[in-house]
TrEMBL record:
PROSITE patterns: ABC_TRANSPORTER_1 (PS00211), ABC_TRANSPORTER_2 (PS50893). Gene3D superfamilies: P-loop containing nucleotide triphosphate hydrolases (3.40.50.300). Residues 2-233 form the ABC transporter domain. InterPro entries: AAA+_ATPase, ABC_transporter-like_ATP-bd, ABC_transporter-like_CS, DrrA1/2-like_C, P-loop_NTPase. PANTHER family: LINEARMYCIN RESISTANCE ATP-BINDING PROTEIN LNRL. It comes from the Bacteria. It comes from Ornithinibacillus halotolerans. This is ABC transporter ATP-binding protein. Keywords: ATP-binding, Nucleotide-binding, Transport. Pfam families: ABC_tran, DrrA1-3_C. One of its GO terms (molecular function) is ATP binding.
Length: 310
């Protein structure tokens, strides 16, 4: 359905995106991941025809959208990272306004506004001023705006940032439902790995403007199939213990949490006795040491050296 071919965007001497190649099949939910500054938003802006690339092409059904963006814009809905609503208008008035931009009029517009309000769960708040809405309700209305013209594809740029868990779950369930019921194609970026695990069929990972991994969730997890993850938990994690782990030649990576240290080691390495010995040497009591199944977060850290929220 969509293909990005050697897509590149350069600002002066700096590459925001470099030779990006991606494809999205009809009916898929595809995740685009990367730490801050990876180039995700620039890539999305080029894909949605809002920003012209320095070089490369974006094709929709084998035709370049750079030469004829208007036909592509008719079939795509964009949910931006920043909320794009008129806060002094009601939810209904916002939808009517944006519906007219999509060339909807009369009974067709009224019917579509009713339908979208039902889909995003805001029918009973249709007459309320948007400035009084919670962050989650604004995000839902933002998605409603993008759905007014029955798009074949939704591009969602971190649609759950800064909202409550209930609204976040509602949005995730809405995306799943739209995909299942309408075969809607979705490109989804997020700072929450669990959202991508829940939603996406395939995943692309970017870092510093480059594509560094692509595949299904299981395929991407296989990137570190020669390694295993070990979780070390303690009530108090001492600095000397962590430093000793980082200096140990058996250990490939150390990730420190509040009460947990996660280490990445070769699959055949037996580090349990070594970890316990280091804990005893540093006067630290462990609560558990366990092998973990590799997660997308582990792969992401392995590839980028940074957590997704960094």
């Amino acid at each position: 359905m969509i293909e990005l071919i050697d897509l590149t965007k350069k600002f002066k001497q700096n590459f925001a995106v470099k030779n990006l190649n991606m494809f999205i099949e009809k009916g898929e939910i595809v995740g685009l991941l990367g730490p801050n500054g990876a180039g995700k938003s620039t890539a999305i802006s080029m894909l949605s025809s809002l920003v012209e690339p320095t070089s490369g092409d974006v094709q929709f059904e084998n035709k370049s959208i750079l030469k004829n963006p208007s036909s592509f814009r008719k079939i795509v809905g964009m949910v931006p990272q920043e909320i794009a609503l008129y806060e002094d208008l009601t939810a209904e008035e916002n939808l009517q306004f944006f519906g007219r931009i999509y060339q909807l009029r009369g009974k067709k517009l009224s019917k579509k506004v009713d339908e979208v309000l039902e889909q995003i769960g805001l029918t009973d708040r249709r007459k309320d001023i948007v400035k009084k809405f919670s962050g989650g309700m604004k995000r839902r209305l933002n998605i409603g705006v993008a759905m007014l013209h029955d798009p074949e594809m939704l591009i969602m740029d971190e649609p759950t940032v800064g909202i409550d868990p209930q609204s976040r779950n509602y949005i995730l369930d809405t995306v799943k439902r739209l995909n299942a019921e309408r075969q809607m194609t979705v490109l989804y970026t997020s700072h929450y790995m669990e959202e991508v695990e829940f939603l996406c069929d395939r995943i692309y990972i970017m870092d510093k403007g480059n594509l560094i991994a692509a595949g299904t969730k299981e395929e991407i997890k296989q990137i570190i199939s020669s390694e295993k993850t070990v979780s070390i938990k303690a009530e108090i994690l001492k600095h000397d213990f962590i430093q000793a782990l980082e200096e140990n030649p058996l250990i490939n990576r150390v990730t420190v949490g509040e009460k947990e240290v996660t280490i990445l080691v070769p699959k055949d390495a037996n580090v349990f006795s070594e970890v316990i010995k280091l804990a005893e040497t540093n006067g630290m009591e462990l609560t558990s040491v366990d092998n973990k199944t590799p997660t997308l977060e582990d792969v992401f850290l392995h590839l980028t050296g940074r957590a997704l929220r960094d």
